[in-house]
Amino acid sequence: MIDAWLKFWFRGEDARAYALLRIALGIVCLINVIDLAPIANSLLSSKGIIDPEAANSWPNTFSLFFVSQDSSVVYAMLGLAFIASCALIVGFASQLAAAVLYFWTCSYSHLALPALGGYDTMLRLLTIILMVSPIGHAWAIDARWWRKISGAKRQVPRYGLVLVRWQILVIYVLSFWNKSPDTYWRAGESVAYFLMSNFAWFPSPWLTKMPILNTLLSWGTLIIELGVPFLLYNKRLRPLGFVLGWGLHLGIAVTKVYLFSLVIMACYAAFLDGDDIDKLCKISQRIMARLGIRRFALKLN
Amino acid sequence: MAQELWHSRGIKRFGLLVATMVFSWHIAAITLPQMPRNSGFGSAPHDFFGPYLRRTGTWGAWEMFTTIPYYHYLTVELLVKEMGNTEQTLGVMLPEFSEMSQHIRVMLYFLRVVWPDSLTQVYRDTYIQKVCNTYQEKFGRPAFSVTLIAKSLRLRRATDTAKDGVMGERQTYEKGPFRCKEPQGGTP
User: Fold this and answer.
1) In this structure, are residues A268 and A245 in contact, taking their beta carbons and an 8 Å threshold?
2) One-letter-per-residue 3-state SS of A66-110
3) Residues 41-70 of A with CB under 8 A from B
4) Is residue A14 within 8 Å of residue A155, measured between CB atoms?
5) CA nearest to A45, candidates B130, B42, B56
6) Of A128, A166, A203, the CB nearest to B58
7) In what order do the strands lie in the sheet with B87-91?
8) For the whole model, what pTM was predicted?
9) Residue A255 has what DSSP assignment?
């Protein structure tokens, strides 16, 4: 019984699944830093729109900006987060980089509560998992160091992937649960409103003239949200889960909440096993070979 | 290597068991408080896991886009009154009083400050006071009150938009005036 329980959490899974997750989340963190930079002073510094007194009214939280909101601190932290994102992508001091990003994300989140989106919650939840997961054993500068310490590990304990998978399941199921009672989602009208709203990059009324398509897209969103996590858990149906889920999130990415789409799409890496990654490697090698980037393609395995 | 890990014995096995307890706790903490507070469980899961979620920064709700957005365009301005009825309209971005950025984070911030809930009410109160303080620093005169003016193009019904292609209709909302704390002088 205890063996089965331990096996559930610590069974070996392909280290490249963690690597893909690490790289993808590193890229999202980098985009988030770049996205925040132009408004960082207005949002986070003492001269900006948020007073830490407001944030302090929420107990048991921590933030570097409770200590200092000087502009130099804001930009230093932004710079550190930029470096940590790059380190996460290349796998250099990976867990430390994840820890820095966790601290950065918590710091701005706990100060600027009204300026947050679901993607900030995701970043906090994911960086804390990456901090304690074996993310530097493949496709990482750290992998050389790990090889010297304990030999190359193709398989690493899967607990971090289990936690990310569960998180994704919770998000999708709750998203469906919360949307489904809404009149507009039920009537199949919602997507047209999003495309016309101030959340769209280029607001347009084109979908209002196609009510059937509008309804299919709105209901399709609900069906995909409910179905995707279960498709991703199933090895045979996983490719369908990827196509439907990424399709949905690429659609959402045409709005200003593109970061949410990116962070969720990155998390799909946690569902991949060794066979899936081998197939992806072969596909990418073929593509790279055609593009004449053979040297890099050979290194992927 | 990993397969050997769960076969381990002694203190290492105990350590792994403790780790699985932590993982299970985390899973329960990110899942159970998502139950509605008006369910039979009431707010017990929120109260129980709340301190852990706040201390670790793992709090959050998954209520994105639960209904349609309301605006095709939204900007917020400030109407700042001084003593003696002098008033001026300013942008909301501090410290320059520049026009509201259309960055998603700034939009979300002002949506929640203009129409606050119990959690963001304190952000509105402190924002208003920051406006008052910044005004005095910038213009050398104390502000007496601040009004938030949200100018919007509110989304029309999709069926109406389909007929003429017009997405929003003008609507202006005024919140306030909110008095600045410790005004120097009498009433305006």
Assistant:
1) yes
2) HCCCCHHHHHHHHHHHHHHHHHHHHCCCHHHHHHHHHHHHHHHHH
3) 42-43, 47-51, 53-54, 57-62
4) yes
5) B130
6) A128
7) B87-91, B71-82, B143-155, B168-179
8) 0.91
9) B
CB within 8 Å of chain B, chain A residues 265-294: none
How far is the alpha carbon of A98 from chain B, nearest alpha carbon, in Å?
14
Distance from CA of A170 to the nearest CA of B (A): 7
Question: What is the distance between the terminal CA atoms of chain B, rounded to a whole angstrom?
Answer: 76
Angle at CA A238, nearest 5°, toward A232 and A244? 80
pLDDT in tens, A1-60: 888 999 999 999 999 999 999 999 999 999 999 999 999 999 999 989 998 888 877 777
Chain A residue whose CA is closest to B121: A54
Mean pLDDT score, A74-103: 97
Contact A58, B120 (CB under 8 A): no
pLDDT, tens digit, for every residue of A242-283? 999 999 999 988 888 899 999 999 999 999 999 999 999 898
Within 13 Å of residue A158, how many CA atoms lie on the same side as its CB?
21
Q: Decide if B150 contacts B124 (C-beta within 8 A).
A: no
Residue of A nearest to B114 (CA): A114
Residues in B touching A153 (Cβ below 8 Å): 1-2
Per-residue CA distances from B69 to B73, B148, B168 (Å): 11, 20, 12
pLDDT(B1) > 50: no
Residues 6+ apart with CB under 8 A from A96: A84, A87
Distance CA A295, CA A288 (A): 9
Tokens encoding A156:
């690493």
Residue A227 contacts B where some CB pair is shorter than 8 Å: no
DSSP annotation of B182: S
Lookup: tokens for B31:
């899942």
> What's the pLDDT at A297?
56
Give the list of residues 6+ apart from residue A181 with CB closer than 8 angstroms, or none: none
Q: Residue A294's pLDDT band (boundaries 50, 70, 90)?
A: low
| Token output for B21 | 């307890």
- Quote the pLDDT of residue A151: 64
What is d(CA A132, CA B23) in angstroms, rounded to the nearest whole number?
11
Contact B57 A128 (CB under 8 A): yes
Q: In angstroms, what separates the C-alpha of B1 from chain A's closest C-alpha?
A: 7
CA distance to partner chain A, nearest, from residue B177 (Å): 18
